[in-house]
Description:
Elements: E1 12-18, H1 26-37, E2 40-45, H2 48-51, E3 60-63, E4 69-72, E5 76-81, E6 107-113, H3 119-132, E7 137-146, E8 156-159, H4 163-169, E9 173-174, H5 182-192, E10 197-205, H6 214-228, H7 237-253, H8 256-273, H9 279-291, H10 296-301, E11 314-315
Parallel strand pairs: 1-6, 1-7, 7-10
Antiparallel strand pairs: 2-5, 3-4, 5-6, 8-10, 9-11
Helix pairs in contact: 1-6, 3-5, 6-7, 7-8, 8-9
Amino acid sequence: MTDGTSFSSGRLLVVAFEGWNDAGEAASGAVRALKELLDLVPIAQVDPQEYFDFQFNRPQVVQDEEGHRLIEWPGATIYGPREPRSAGAPLAEDAHLSVSGDNGGNVFLLLGTEPSRNWKAFTAEILDTARQAGVQGIVMLGALLADVPHTRPISVFATSESAAVRKELGIERSTYEGPVGILSVIAEAADAIGIPTVSVWASVPHYVHSAPSPKATLALIDRLEEMVDVTIPRSDMVDEAAAWEAGIDALAGEDEEMAAYIEQLEQARDTVDSPEASGEAIAQEFERYLRRGDGREGREGKADGRPPEDPRRPRD
């Protein structure tokens, strides 16, 4: 970062949106887990009327604690620490401490639904709030559907357009070309005004796309800890991830075709992870299994058939 502050020690905004960028609800689940641990208050909310199509993202009827029925509108909220630290101050002297109001004063959160329209105005509003809050870096969390087995560790890919951040965090630059979501729009605009960004994506097995994936949420949290320099207690998430995997194992045990397909994905993943595999062999095997879906990712994962953002191709 230009002022000499490392990416992870400055004020950070962690971002996740429900919808297209959030396979298995993994990204929004990770940010919600962080929100539950930090002493945060809303500092800005967008006007739903300006950015959402209510026939596409419909309002929901809910009941409050007193039993009153309320309409909840789709939207996006930025949360900030109740007692922010000075910009650039270390987040915690000991990274092994649990998150609390004492050491969370550099972490801001943006959580909401991906807007339906006016993305440029939406992005400008978000970044204006971020600059006023003294945010020095942004972490984008997303999750995509992919041909990966649920029985192996969830793959997490981190990329950045900032050479300084790539060097600091040991990550690469994405070469993905194709349709994008609001995360990419915010990232490009932030980089243009001098706020470095990191995009972190988890790969969620496409054959269980309709259910939340606690294992993917946990994988994002593992990576997020390194970004924000805190330890996030896992509470019940480890047990939930194990139950999720066991449930899919049970389904596969009753479906020979599904079990055979998962075995193929396992072989492909093990080939990629093998220390003996050459770079060319890894690329060929990985591409073969990624292409095997013949567009299934879009048909099963998204109602409109759009492919998810894919940062899987790092640039040397």
